[in-house]
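User: These chains co-purify. Model them together.
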Amino acid sequence: MSSEQAVRGAVQTHSKRVWRFALALSGAPDVADDLVQATCLRALERHHQVTSHERLDSWLMTICRSIWLNEVRSRSVRRAQALSVTPEADLVAIGPDSETNIFASEVFTQVMHLPEAQRETVMLVFVEGYSYREAAALLEVPIGTIMSRLSNARRKLKAVMQHDAADVAQRSGK
Amino acid sequence: MKFSDETLMAYLEGSLDETQCRAIEAAVEVDAELERRMMALDPFALVVQGVFEGLPAQAPQVDLPEAIVPVPSNSGSPLRLLAVAASVAIVAVSATFWATRPAELGWAQQAALYQSLYVPETISSLDSSPESLDDQFAMAEEQLGRSLNRDALEALPGLDLKRAQILSFKGKPLIQVVFADEQGRPFAFCVIRQGPAAPNKEVKQAVLSGLATAIWAQDGYGYMLLGSDAQTDLGGELDVLTQTFSG
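Assistant: Joint model of the two components:
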């Protein structure tokens, strides 16, 4: 398989997780749409840089974050702030019952209200399952910083979760 | 140092003191197995993942170009290289455009974005011999359907005419005339044919994509002047060009 084919395949396979990461970075679904598109185009342009076909997901995440930081962020910050007062609960997938939905939308809102650095870390580790050291490499910070960001995020999420965490985990069968 | 699951759980729930937390974090830094245990115990990760893993409901729409056709390596003529450079610039512009569009960009914003990628090196090697300019202006004026008043453009003080290039915005011909200023930095004048229904617009100055610009529209054509940076004073050129292109 050529590196171009590998990159096209990775784009197909990982577009949802790149989108979630883009959402965590930008805080806005429409900016996330555009970031994914820009990331995939950029990745395809740079397919010749790919030396290993493994972990192309991290490579896509790195490109996405670099486009966000260097090209989009300054223009989107004002809009992201505007978003913080807009309920985005309709984004959350519909669960089996309304109580779960309310809880899910509270968690969603809490996560989206975290500072950007905590939000991107939470998305990579909690949602995408990157290890602390993988996230540290991707975000170019020490592993201790990853752990302290997650601790701070947990503290803020605790208020929402302490009521229902066990309940939801049980219902979702995990 | 060994840490029990209970201790790790207490850390995750935020109920350990500062010293104990630092000890655990220091241990995790050098112990991948401890890290794995901690991640597996994390109740927050489970819940947050449950909320986000269904998003987005459908895979995002991604438009990728078809397979890239390699450029033959034995055709290194300047024109060919220019075409390659232009296509790279267009890909860069469209990627930036996609990434940043808060709303649809107008022709002026896009022209500014494109122009902002120009550096002195972009224009220093252009062939601006009278013969080349003759050809470029003939083609550009034919596309545009009006004169570009080359004499007036060549007489602009402090600017050296480098090239007239045919671009297109939503099917409308857009001509970019590039100059070098006294320091060799790129400076541009753009004209787009908008059609007879387009309203006239007074001169409006704004900084777009980091460049000082002035935009106006008259009799179905849009005009734009782009300085070499955000501070460029466009006053002198603007006076001449609004006179020259007044109808």
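The longest strand of chain B covers residues 160-169.
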